[in-house]
Amino acid sequence: MRSTLSAVLIALACLFAPLGALSTWAAYGIGDDERYAAAMEPLAADTDVREAIAAAVTTGILREVHVRAPLQGPVNHFVRDAVRSFTLTPAFHTAWQAANRAAHEAVMRALRSDREEAVTIDLAPVAEQVRSQLAGAHVPLANRIHVEHTEITVLPSENLAELRKGFHVLEVAGFWLPVSAAVLAVTGILVAVCRRQAVLATGLGTAVGAALLGVAVAVGRRLTLADLPPDVSPTAVGAVYDALTDTLRLVSWALLALGLTVALTALLTAAYARRRRASRAPGPAPAEPPTRVRA
Questions:
Q1: Mind telling me which residue stretches traverse the membrane in this protein (predicted)?
Q2: Cα–Cα dist 243/234, whole Å
Q3: C-alpha span between 58 and 79 (Å, rounded)
Q4: What is the pLDDT of residues 188-216, one digit of tens each?
Q5: DSSP β-bridge partners for residue 122
Q6: What is the model's pLDDT at position 184?
């Protein structure tokens, strides 16, 4: 009975460990404004992200500028180069941070409310900076640029309902799942008949759960990139995905290392205990010399 109860508790603990890591990441990593901004900040220097933003802003600008067909190619290249050069400036870094904070607040507000509207990032401030840069270079077309909205959809409205339910569950479980995993693991070890074997099973189970979590992150990345609209850069989305899940990947590696360390420690202590018992065992009694019987 104790062995069965211990096995069930340890199995639940090993299941809750990766789920707890996932829920904690969602609640305290993605859901926190400062941590989200810190994760997204390095992407302002990412080449693929800058190229995707340059393409979106260029498209928005050229939508407002009507030029003759022979000039469309040169104007397109000129505006694209101007936007690219702007993405290398400190002003772009500031605009990137402001846009991401605004987008994060909008996403969190959408996930925590009942509104069914798509969440978008407005790149109009970036386009305005580019227009000012072109005007400063005395480009005649700059005065004809009037970009009111250059929006990029961050969260489609059709996905909000499912994401809202999932995020709410993860947010609630962000604290309780890790605590439950620790309590179940300790309880399962304490009620076990052989605690050393219970510790070994807990370590191996935690390592397996961590490995599955890492695989889930990799599979999630592949599925995310496989379902993108044709006008969205897969490399840019991949960079954003990697930045957001970097902490989750580190946690999965940490859990894997912890589980393997615990399992290895249990094996080594078991081997040491067997050697000590063998060294303390009394040796065979010496044989008595045969007695001679005289006739």
A1: 173-193, 200-220, 250-273
A2: 14
A3: 6
A4: 999 888 888 999 999 999 999 999 999 99
A5: 151
A6: 92
At residue 199, what is the residue type?
A: V
For the chain, list residues with pLDDT below 50.
295
Give the C-alpha separation, 73 to 97, whole Å: 32
Give dist(CA 50, CA 42) in Å, integer: 11
Q: Which two tokens stand for residue 287?
A: 């044989």
Domains of the chain by residue range: 2-272
User: Which residue, among 110, 117, 121, 106, has the nearest Cα to 151 in the 3D structure?
Assistant: 121
Q: Are 121 and 149 in contact (CB under 8 A)?
A: no
97 in Cβ contact with 44 (< 8 Å): yes
With residue 57 as reference, give the H or E element that holds it: helix 47-64
Using the structure block, give the residue that is written with the tokens 């052989």. Answer: 194
- pTM check: above 0.85: no
Residue of 118, 121, 106, 103 whose CA lies nearest to 56: 121
> How far, in Å, CA of 13 to CA of 2, rounded?
16
